[in-house]
Write a structure and sequence with these properties.
Radius of gyration: 32 Å
Strand order of the largest sheet: 16-17-30-29-19-25-24-23-22
Strand content: over 45%
Shape: elongated
Oligomer: single chain
Number of strands: 36
Mean pLDDT: 81
Low-confidence stretches: 1-16, 160-168, 427-436
Length: 436
Amino acid sequence: MASAMIMGTTTTAFAANGRPEDSDTAIVTITDLSGNPTVTLYQIADVEYGPGGVEFVDYEWADGITEGEDITPEAPTATEINAIAQGILNSDVIPFGTPMTTQKAGDTFTATVSAGAYIAIITGATDDTIYNPILLTATYGTEGNPGNLVGGNISANSSYLYGSTAIAKSTTPDIDKEITDGTAADGDRETASVGDVISYELTPTIPNYPSNATNKTFYVTDSLSGGLTFDYDSLAVNISGVTVTRSGNNFLLNDNIIATAHETENGFNLCFNYDNLVSNSTTGAVYVPTVIYDAIVNANAVVGSDGNGNTATLYYGNPNVGSTWDNPEQIPTTGSSIETTTDTETVYTYQLAFRKVDDNTENPNPLAGAVFGIYSDQACTNLVDKVTTNSQGYAVSTNVAAGIYYIKELAAPTGYSLNLNFAKKLHCYEVTFVKR
């Protein structure tokens, strides 16, 4: 079994006469943990000693584990280890002794153990990291120093080998939401006008599920605020920059459905089929999808600092708890088996306001009924909005983003003539505008 593990610096205790004894202990360590998780260590193999508790005889496996059938001692696979972990949780495998549990693992878990094999099941990380089961061993040397009991030091966030298969031990699921087109930048804000089409891209970090995990939930939702109108027909899924085939509500890769969509009131649910995203069954590598779609800024857009937000949510499962959520019409129920992570993008819409008065320099009078065009070009050919002054002479438009605009009088108030040459350059963030 020792040949199957990556060994690091260890502390050992063994019989003074160099022979294996039932009092021998070694230290096993899991490093690079995050989120202060709970680590529960189960002994799945014990050592049988000779008369008087000395001399190694053989390994004895826990009830429910058959050597060569359920586990390959010289090169255990991730599938075997995960199946045993599920068996422990389902009481189909009965480990030796009392499980060793820590509620405060910090970044390192250390245990002093007797000879044998152990499975660490790691849960409850506060930073949403999920961990696949980890195999640890304390084994006797076979050459030169057979009495030396050796433990091991394994990193929880790197890959390690079970036989010839590289397995990622931990994954921190995440989702990144970005605006890719349709806005103008104003400092760290993305701004747009009413009627603008905004393009979004969602990139999830996919959980790394063992092939025989019972819960492979991979589910994305996005919900838009009332100032944005979701365009369901624009919803697409890309793999390595290439758009996969969409057939109705289904997205297909190599003729397999990798996701099924459901349109909600102003957004969507997207239920992925994890197994159909696996690109290499040996290593467990998966295709990484990106989700793209458009939304239109509508007349209900919020003006000012609150902005118009929309939030994407990734739902993912605990590999060995519960079952895969596969209903696209209903979002997953969260709890011990399914957790979430979110990301939000906000589009800001500004308000442009100005006042029309007469030429009385001492006490100018407001002029109602003047019609102005608001343009994005100095030639006043690209009309953004048309507004009319009220009884106080004010005209207001919310169809603006950060930038430079030009206004042109299109119709004069009653009793006044139209100034055909009037065109004035305005900045939407100058004091002459109202920005809230």
